UniProtKB/TrEMBL annotation:
Pfam families: RlmL_1st, THUMP, UPF0020. Residues 170-376 form the Ribosomal RNA large subunit methyltransferase K/L-like methyltransferase domain. Residues 76-136 form the THUMP domain. The lineage of its organism: Bacteria, Pseudomonadati, Bacteroidota, Sphingobacteriia, Sphingobacteriales. Residues 11-65 form the RlmL ferredoxin-like domain. This is THUMP domain-containing protein. The keyword Transferase applies. It comes from Pedobacter jeongneungensis.
Amino acid sequence: MMQVFHNKSKVIITCNKRLSPYLQDEVTALGYTIVRAFATGVELNITLTECIKLNLNLRCASQILYSIKSFKAVTPDDLYKEISAIEWEELIDFSGYFSVTSNVDNPNITTPLFANLKVKDAIVDRMKEKKGIRPNSGSDANKAVVHLYWKDADADVFMDTSGETLAKHGYRKIPGKAPMLEALASSVILASNWDRKSPFINPMCGSGTLAIEAALIATNRAPGLYRMNYGFMHILGYNEEDFFAERRILKDQVIKNVDLKIIASDLSEDAVEVTRRNAKTAGVDTLIEFKVCDFELTPVPEDGKGVVVFNPEYGERLGVHSKLELTYKRMGDFMKTKCKGYSGYIFTGNPDLAKKIGLKASKKIEFYNGKLDCRLLEYELYDGSRRAPLIEA
């Protein structure tokens, strides 16, 4: 019998592009040794049981994939043969449900959907032969999920221990307008080197993802507290006590009494209400001060250094709107006059608008928001006459 929950195997933890450095820090902080790091994730050698802890704790990850088999396959028929040889009856409930996802780059495959179909057929045929009944299959990722990686002749079949993506943290029931993905928001906060104690100011907060993630990070609330269904729960051999034991650890490690100032403001009353409701779902609404106001009127505590983070509209890549040009200039003026002693950050996908900020960026950190090439611009807002850095925004 396949003892996947107790046998070590190759595990790939994926993330969105440019989040890998922050994912690496998270994984090593949890005590795991990284075998290999790459642009969209890391590789470990661990058991499936150990994947449970990672699923519940990681903020920057997307999927955690446990390798079942690596093999060579040139044609779809090769793929079918190799997949059919796997003991699926010991992995998936024959009366249950599974879905197939893939990452395919093979000259004999014109669409990944065809590869998915081959994998599904191989599993179903094997189960029908061994058990006399076939499991149901479809596109829903809320039960068992099988993932195929196939590049040229190299193939890997994984059990996706996450199922639904980990990049969404489960508390944002109301998305709001153009929300920032939770995994990206976490990475932005980690990139800012915020000390989790000083003020965190989020003007133009939108649906509040940055402010809420800051509160979650500061109080050590892990994403696993907001989710009760993962891919690993639908793999044969799963022991639910392992999950609940890990979840008890998450609850125990929450920092309940924090002296913390997080301020989220927006000109839109609806946006602030969405932020408030999402924060309440996350259990951190009492830690955030909500303000309906123009960002220039956002209160900025003067007691010590802090972090101010903007995620403004980016506008069109071509033909920058004059209204947004003025907004970006006003953001620069606000940070320069109201945020002395703070570290200022503006997340934008529009380099032309960034030039209107009127401040010199000390650092430009690369991110993607979806497929859009973005930068997190860092500004050291010195309190006094200290010279500004010489890197142009």
